[in-house]
Specification:
It contains 16 helices and 13 strands. By secondary structure, the chain is an alpha/beta fold. The longest helix is centred in the middle third of the chain and has 26 residues.
């Protein structure tokens, strides 16, 4: 029976169903915004929740609307699945594949709280960047969870965490060293020894610290391993270190439930290899004892169905041949197993319009002249490589820099039109959100550190650019990209340290031509300045500093944006 409030799109042939409530659970409020799901997946229902399939979070969490009906469905299905066992003996995994706006962080926090209330005292939350640590704490606090949290990046020392009684960060986990340990995928692969033997040693690797900490619990105290932004581990077939350690952590901790959270985690079948706990293919986890064929020592049920595929290679081979329809069948299979949530915002009431930006005469001249500049730079690079004074891999640096240059130039060319459209929308009383490709902070920071500061200004205290040539006082990302390519990949001295006059002359000539182009300024700084300055524009980015122009003097200064938590 169709759920209350579920609506079909006006087009009868639409493949998506829109909804704000769950058909699986009765509690919870409507989701704040309509969600959508393919009809085939929406019509596939998991095994109904039984009276014993509870979610152990305070009642007020649901009563106060802290979890919507759709979020509660996800938490209930995942919590039930975590109480079971795969045929090989490991606890199953759940794929939280919801898109932006569905509240994945809130669901992760609710599942940690559920496991905590069941007696599981150690949990790991792995995400893409260290900045997301504050988001993780916020999601837990929003649910009223008083679960201790610590960030591994702030634990400077190596060694077993349970022995670091005086470490300020580890102390946050209390005397029993229990709670949520947050880290990034980059931190997971960090080690001070490259030997394979040291990989699991907490004295030499972060992976060893995490695994050792998790293994210091009994079966009943084993909690949740959450791979947030799980697509970071998608290259297991290429044996990248990050993907390999994600796989090893699952194998080494079979008593821990696993949550894969990613909106793009299953877009390609080849990227799913690390999701071994979903139960789609047989894996070599710890086998069941003879007396545990129907359950384990704790009474957890074992999934009755054997995996549909013998191994991942067979699974990949079949699904690859079937294309997108086969991937949809995989989603339906996981949904029927109660192992998947894959909703996304329906964007009900939104419209899409493509605006074409036509280049003026100045922009066309800049583009044409830059093409000639890049052509001549390549000729010089080929000459330098042939003479043995430049490294061969400099060609790769050249093409990468050229791609960044033209992407930046194209984005900057859209700024005037974006400002015009924004001002018109604001005049109509609308709110405007602008998404940008890059902030150019990395290239600007390198320029500042190398001493490319504006004329008459202290380094880092004003405009940045070669010879002080910057557009309107702001750094120009494309300009800095070329400068750094020339400085880092075009040697001006020979093997014995002797100066190469022709190379030095050529580089200075290239830079003079570059500065004469008067390339556009950094788009994010120009947008903020043109739209009223930092007081009128809220910037949501990861950059640590931004450049602000004084409206009276035109002087550009740096402003710190991020402060320690």
């Amino acid at each position: 029976e169709a759920e209350e409030g579920e609506a079909q799109a006006d087009d009868a042939g639409s493949r998506f169903a829109t909804f704000q409530r769950s058909t699986v659970v009765a509690g919870g409020c409507d989701h704040p915004d309509p969600l959508c799901e393919p009809h085939a997946v929406r019509d596939t229902q998991p095994e109904p929740l039984a009276p014993g399939d509870d979610v152990r979070v305070p009642r007020r969490v649901v009563a106060e609307g802290l979890l919507s009906s759709t979020q509660l469905e996800c938490v209930a299905l995942a919590a039930r699945r975590f109480r079971r066992r795969l045929p090989g003996g490991a606890r199953p995994g759940f794929l939280l594949g919801d898109g932006t706006g569905c509240g994945k962080g809130r669901c992760i926090a609710a599942l940690i709280l559920d496991q905590w209330n069941r007696g599981a005292r150690r949990h790991v939350w792995i995400s893409a960047t260290a900045d997301l640590y504050s988001d993780a704490i916020r999601d837990l606090q929003d649910l009223g969870a008083s679960i201790p949290c610590a960030s591994l990046s702030r634990v400077r020392a190596y060694g077993a965490l349970d022995t670091m009684h005086n470490n300020p960060e580890v102390k946050k986990l209390g005397k029993n060293c229990e709670g949520v340990l947050f880290l990034t995928y980059a931190m997971l692969v960090s080690a001070r020894s490259k030997s394979i033997e040291a990989q699991s040693d907490p004295n030499f690797s972060r992976f060893g610290q995490v695994q050792t900490w998790l293994m210091q619990t009994g079966e009943e105290e084993s909690g949740l391993i959450c791979f947030d932004e799980a697509h970071k581990a998608k290259n297991l077939d290429q044996n990248t270190k990050g993907a390999r350690l994600v796989d090893e952590l699952q194998r080494g901790c079979p008593n821990y439930a696993v949550l894969y959270a990613s909106a793009t985690g299953a877009t390609e079948v080849g990227h799913m290899q690390y999701m071994s706990r979903l139960g789609l293919w047989r894996d070599d986890y710890q086998p069941l004892a003879a007396n545990e064929s129907e359950g384990d020592a704790s009474g957890a049920a074992v999934d009755a169905e054997r995996p549909p595929f013998e191994d991942f290679d067979r699974f990949r081979s079949l699904v690859s041949r079937g294309g997108m329809p086969a991937m949809e069948l995989v989603a339906m299979q996981l949904k029927s197993m109660g192992a998947l949530s894959c909703r996304s915002l329906a964007f009900t009431g939104t419209s899409f319009e493509l605006a074409t930006v036509r280049l003026d005469t100045t922009a066309r001249a800049q583009y044409d002249a830059s093409c000639e500049l890049w052509r001549d730079i390549r000729r010089m690079l080929d000459l330098a490589i042939n003479q043995g004074i430049a490294r061969k891999h400099a060609r790769g640096e050249f093409w990468a820099a050229q791609q960044r240059f033209y992407k930046g130039l194209v984005v900057a060319a859209k700024v005037p039109e974006a400002v015009r459209l924004t001002q018109e929308a604001l005049a109509r009383g609308e709110a405007v959100v602008i998404s940008l490709w890059t902030t150019n902070e990395s290239v600007s920071s390198r320029a500042s550190q190398s001493g490319h500061a504006g004329d008459g200004e202290e380094e880092g205290g004003g405009g940045i650019g070669g010879g002080g040539k910057v557009a309107d006082g702001f750094a120009s990302g494309p300009e800095l990209t070329v400068e750094q390519l020339l400085d880092r990949n075009f040697p001006t001295t020979g093997p014995q340290g002797e100066p190469i006059a022709w190379a030095m002359e050529a580089i200075q000539g290239f830079k003079a031509r570059l500065w004469s182009l008067k390339l556009p300024p950094n788009p994010i700084d120009e947008l903020i300045d043109q739209l009223g300055g930092a007081a009128a524009v809220a910037e949501m980015s990861g950059r640590t500093h931004r450049y602000i122009k004084d409206p009276f003097s035109g002087e550009v200064r740096t402003d710190a944006r991020r402060r320690p938590l």
